[in-house]
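re the bet — no i am not wrong, look at it urself. input seq straight from the record:
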Amino acid sequence: MGLQRVHVAGGGLAGPLLAVMLAQRGIPLTLYERRSDPRAHGTTSGRSINLALADRGIRALEQAGLMGQIRPMMLPMRGRMVHDPQADSAPRLLPYGQRDREVIYSVGREALNRVLIEAAARLPEVQLRFDTTCTDADPVRGTLTCQDNRSGARHEVREAVTIATDGAGSALRTSLARAGHVVVTELPLEHDYKELHVPPRDAQYALRAEALHVWPRHGYMLIALPNPDHSFTATLFLPRTGAPGFDTLGSDAAVEEFFRSEFPTAAALIPDLATQFRTHPQGHLGTIHTDPWARGSVLLLGDAAHAIVPFHGQGMNAAFEDCTVLDSLLEGAGKSAHHDWPGIFATFNAVRRTDAQAIAQMALENYAEMRSAVLDERFLRHKAWALQLERLHPARFIPRYAMVMFHPEISYSQALRRGDVQQQILAALDQDADAAGLATQLNGAQLARAQELIAAWL
């Protein structure tokens, strides 16, 4: 008797990566995706065009043996290029870290999805079912209901082991909540987003390529990530209502005036700004908490379980890390014709929840940092001090951003806890400082005090 078939609902990013990992363990599975095959048709979901890939996601892709295909698609970003509000200020680069390897990468969602689907399709254990929506999962009856989007025909899979990777708008999470199997809390952000295309200039990047560009304006911001074709994808994050807010930008003239006033350097790079703004969709943001993620033989994974706002660049990376955690649990379970899937899923829920909650909190906090704190002298001073302390105490003091982005061996919850302690240390050094101590380098007395605090608190 062969291994029990697993049904993975959702072929975006986490779904096909998980399919590869399961298939490499000899587990047969069916991968369902509501869209048509992206290998034959481009994606038209309106979702973000490019994403930030960091070390947690890279580790998962390496574990699946896929980095060889993905590495050529990766564009390095070595830091934030901050465009200050003052018109006469030159952009300044805030490096993400102080080591050559401490970079994050811009990757195209569509190209990455295609590589993952192709990798899954090559494995004989994987069956692909496109144009198929998984609508209901019943952990009591052990059934999964799917619908063929072309014919409308529905079919029910019995004795189904189901893993829902169908994203933030998960139909299976909705079905579980409707039946009372899980409780879902949605926390919408009062800010929406809109993407804009910055074309190449003279066949070259119009902005410095190896950076994530940020125009922070305290209550809102514009960012831009590089694309392989020498363009940038810019994203405006702005309150839905207010002054300024999306509801105040209802005319071409209002859009052009707003960008000329707030983002003049960016506006100069987008010749059809008003047209793009009028025709591109306005997206919504929020955090989703689900309790629990597992019921019987049904598991929610990635955004389906714990969608977060995008400001730490960790949504995809966290979902990929989910895959590695589940894969490690299967490794521990050994080979068996009948895995204890309910037990494995319950363990996954128990060991992963705290980390998911931590990155959800840090993602929200990072929005305030990107749109406002990077303009603050105290923030910049603390950032410089943190890098100095990391050089002196590399095993004890690692900036929180670096822990999240470049140290997958440190869990999200550990990064949150240690980051809070480190911020208290920096605040204590600020309190102890005299006027000379407000420089961007710590003096001898401050270093001695920092060493005492690190020894006592970390």
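see?? The two ends are 52 Å apart (CA to CA). told u. also The chain has 15 helices and 21 strands. so pay up
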